Amino acid sequence: MKIIPLGETDSLLGHYLAQLRDKSVQKDSLRFRKNLERIGEIFAYEISKTLAYQEVEVETPLGIATSRVLAEEPVLATILRAGLPVHQGLLNCFDHAQNAFVAAYRKYGKGNECELLIEYQSCPPLEGKTLIISDAMIASGASMEMTYESLTSCGEPAHTHIVCPVASRDGVEYLSRQLPHKRVTFWVGAIDEELTNHSYIVPGLGDAGNLAFGEKD
């Protein structure tokens, strides 16, 4: 798996990440969602440089212009619910893309044992397509691995891009071991070093789903 840590290069991405982390700015859920969306747009632009293009002729009011456009739109997928703002940023750029959604969650049992479950999936055919999977954060990496396996039951993508503003070092290393090396690229804003026993990233963001959409039961 190829890893591209965009946050290591100075850009507006770092500016938006700083606001996402700031607990005083986080009080504004609209700004929190908007910053995730902006980061999704930055990832979309960078990924667009790796895609295939074709030449077309476009008629203007004064003549014919030759332009290069996407040969095929990717399929955009996200994990509900925290991934939705990042997904929207990608969709703002790849505005004709087909979309996929996966509901994955942790179920805690006795002794605080945790089981990862997928409750719902909606996905178009993926065979030979470019797939972009987004989430707000990747902690252990297990839910992203499960999501990838679930989605690829709808066909084997030609290439998969994973997009995440913040990930833990453990999560990145786990996905590097579990996912196909040549057919997956991992785009990440920041890689944080600490992951707690309860799979919380430190310094991280906090609970991105709650910050974006409010607390849940």
Describe this structure in words.
The chain is α/β, with parallel strands linked by helices. The chain has a single domain, classed as Rossmann fold. The chain is 30% helix and 34% strand. It is built from six helices and twelve strands. The strands form three sheets. Strands 1, 4, 5, 6, 7, 8, 9 and 10 form an eight-stranded mixed β-sheet that branches. Strands 2-3 form a two-stranded antiparallel ribbon. Strands 11-12 form a two-stranded antiparallel ribbon. α2 crosses α3. The longest helix is centred in the first third of the chain and has 20 residues.
Q: Please report the distance between the alpha carbons of the first and last residues.
A: 36 Å
Main sheet properties: 8 strands, mixed
Helix content: 25-40%
How many separate domains make up the residues?
1
> Which structural class do the helices and strands define?
alpha/beta
Gyration radius from CA atoms, angstroms: 18 Å
Write down the CATH topology.
Rossmann fold
- Molecular shape: globular
